[in-house]
Description:
By secondary structure, the protein is α+β, with helices and mostly antiparallel strands. The protein folds into two domains: 69-142; 144-254, hypothetical protein PF0899 fold (2-Layer Sandwich). The protein has five helices and four strands; from the N terminus they run H-H-H-E-H-E-E-E-H. The chain has helices spanning 5-140, 145-159, 162-174, 191-205, 236-254, and strands spanning 181-185, 211-215, 222-227, 230-235.
Amino acid sequence: MLIDWFTVGAQVLNFIILVWLMKRFLYWPVLDAIATRELKIAAALADAATTKAEAHRQQDAFRQKNLAFDEQRTALLREARDSAKAEGERLRLEAREAADRASARRANTLLADVQHLHAEIARHTQQQVFDISRRVLGDLAGVGLEQRMCEVFIQRLQDIEGAALATLGAALRAVCAAEPAGLRSAFALAAPQQAAIRAALDALVGQPVPLKFDTTPGLVGGIELSAQGQKLAWSIPDYLGALSSDLEARLAVKVPA
């Protein structure tokens, strides 16, 4: 069998051209496409990993924010409860204090009313005693109450002794015509009664005493001598006060505790 070397050579050349053509137009493009695809896949995987990492990071951040929000909400709720409790305590305290003040005001008002009533009763009683005593003395002894009170006051002047006498005497000796001693009475003293009081004071001090007479109905049947800040007085309120104190003392002794 004869070999046609021309045909063999042509076939070999055709094969070489075919291989080159396949490599040139098929193999390298396929490799390039595969490489490009691999790069895209790698980029997609890298992007997916980045996205996944970002998702995890955002999830962790969201979880941390939720924890912080829960803690803040708990703190705010606790603060609100504490504030509400404190405000409630403050309001209760203010209400209690307001109630106490109102109660104190009512008690003070009631006490003032009672004291005013007692004062009115005492004043009325003193005036009644004054009027009754005036009528009794006038009917029984023919002596006016004013005259008897002057006699009692003069007797008190004469009974002063010791340090009280020295203090009152010094005050009376210190008065002058420009600033005389004052004698107030609940009634207008007649001239004989004024003369009797002047004589008693002069005898007490040992010299004439400038004296000014005034009428003060508020004394409710009484006489008051004042000089240089020193006072000597006798009145129905003083007398009734002494009687009341003596009566309360006696009742305290008789009534068991």
